[in-house]
Amino acid sequence: MAACGFNFETFFNIVNGGRRVSDKTTFSIDPSTECRLWEVPVATPHDVEDAVKFANDAFKNWSTTPFEQRVSKISQWKQLYEQHVEDFTKLLMAECGKPRFIAAGEANEVLALFDHNLQLRIPEERIEDDTRIAITRHVPVGVVAAICPWNFPLVLSVGKILPALLTGCSIIVKPSPFTPYSALKMVELAQNIFPPGVVQVIGGDDSIGPALVDHPNVNKISFTGSSTTGKRIMASAAGTLKRVTLELGGNDPAIIYPDVDIEKTAPEVAQGCFVFSGQVCVATKRVYVHESIYEPFLKAMVNATSRIEVGKADSPSTTMGPMQNKMQYEKVQDLVADSTTQGYKFALAPRPITFGKGYYLSPSIVDNPPATARIVVEEQFGPIVPVLKWSDEADVIAQANGTTSGLGASVWSADISRAERVGRQMQAGSVFVNSWAKTTPRAMLSGHKESGIGGEWGSLGFLEYCNTQVVHVFK
């Protein structure tokens, strides 16, 4: 099942099964070197209209394709993808600046997404009484537009494509201009398996997302990104009452109880803060440590964080690469500068990076800043984190919940029943007990408050690509 003529150095938009180029091109930047990567075509308004038209045409047949045939096609796509896991790993290293082990983790997580979705089946409920039979079904919503982020461009695009295809929808993927390459290639690979128009990809600039959101013939938007953009999408989608799934920003707290094993727990908490340079929606962004162990825990966190090796993505010794893009790099630099200007104490100060070019920041830890500090209130999405003291359980729960975000949270204690009890009080879609945020395709990923609407993954997430229909049969 080889993909003829398939390479990882030329990139196309994919419309109706065909490769499309454009008079206008753009490119992304390798964040390790600030060098130009490959050119990609910028989709035109005509490309958008064609993609929507062909997606609607393809939906008519794909939605009526027997479920097991759709499963078989997805299985074939998985087999083809398995031949290119290493190619996608290298692509993620280049476009994201991810060290090899992080990039390989994402590339292999795609296989877990395949395995999970291949096991799902659409439920049907049947209720019968003396007068009627009521059959509750889940029918495909129609044409889906997937607007994808730059931090996990492969996992978070495939995580939208698979449930859409499984349920009988057609889908148009819009990758981030910062990291377009892996999504473009993944959808190109899919053309060897699926009928034209079932899965398409159009990218290039920031005009494409709004065009898809506003289009009357797109039925659902699945978006992962900032809460600010999510609100704009929701407002625009209201014009046509599009279905929306929004996985948005977070400001995830970790609560550390005094009975933890400090030397074991502190490095784990640090990893939850700084994995992929903190550019993870469910990364730990506020650490609340009980005052009785604050000093030794902070010291252990600093020691663990100091061992992080910042370097280029392709260096075997690198454990933390660069920030993915200049925009986010400058935002985090601004937070560092603000913390310095405000006179907050750094338990671990930023250290100079001497690679010349690249968006490199060393991890830093702010020691017990005020609760009103920007570093506490704002989502950093980068390698800087505040550590704060607490003494009263009710108060720290209130502080942890005291934001407009509600994506993830973690609670750490030797007393698991206590940690679970507190975890149930967290206003967050995902709560982790004695672990940093380790998501799985088998569990729903969703946000509370301004961290999202709906959810994806798990045994129920794929039903968000459906409308519910009840058929009443009277006897």
Description:
The protein has 475 residues and is an alpha/beta fold. 36% of the residues lie in helices and 22% in strands. It has a 7-stranded mixed sheet, sandwiched between helices. Strands 9-8-7-10-11-20 form a 6-stranded mixed sheet, with helices on both faces. Strands 5-6-22 form a 3-stranded antiparallel sheet, with no helix packed on it.
Features:
22% strand; Aldehyde Dehydrogenase, Chain A, domain 2; Aldehyde Dehydrogenase, Chain A, domain 1; alpha/beta; 36% helix; 2 domains; globular; single chain; 14 helices; seven-stranded mixed beta sheet; 475 residues; six-stranded mixed beta sheet
List the helices and strands and how they pair.
Blueprint: E1 13-15, E2 18-20, E3 25-30, E4 35-41, H1 45-62, H2 67-82, H3 85-96, H4 100-119, E5 125-128, E6 132-140, E7 143-147, H5 155-167, E8 170-174, H6 181-190, E9 199-201, H7 208-214, E10 220-224, H8 227-237, E11 243-247, E12 252-256, H9 262-274, E13 284-290, H10 294-306, H11 326-341, E14 345-348, E15 364-367, H12 374-377, E16 384-390, H13 393-401, E17 408-412, H14 416-423, E18 430-433, E19 445-446, E20 452-453, E21 455-456, E22 466-474
Parallel strand pairs: 7-8, 7-10, 8-9, 10-11, 12-13, 12-17, 13-16, 15-16, 17-18
Antiparallel strand pairs: 1-2, 3-4, 5-6, 6-22, 11-20, 14-15, 19-21
Helix pairs in contact: 2-5, 3-4, 4-5, 9-10
Number of domains: 2
Please state how the strands of the largest beta sheet are arranged side by side. Answer: 14-15-16-13-12-17-18
Please name the CATH topology of the largest domain: Aldehyde Dehydrogenase, Chain A, domain 1
Query: In whole angstroms, how far apart are the ends?
Result: 51 Å
Keywords: Oxidoreductase
InterPro entries: Ald_DH/histidinol_DH, Ald_DH_C, Ald_DH_CS_CYS, Ald_DH_CS_GLU, Ald_DH_N, Aldehyde_DH_dom, LUC3-like
Protein name: aldehyde dehydrogenase (NAD(+))
Catalytic activity: an aldehyde + NAD(+) + H2O = a carboxylate + NADH + 2 H(+)
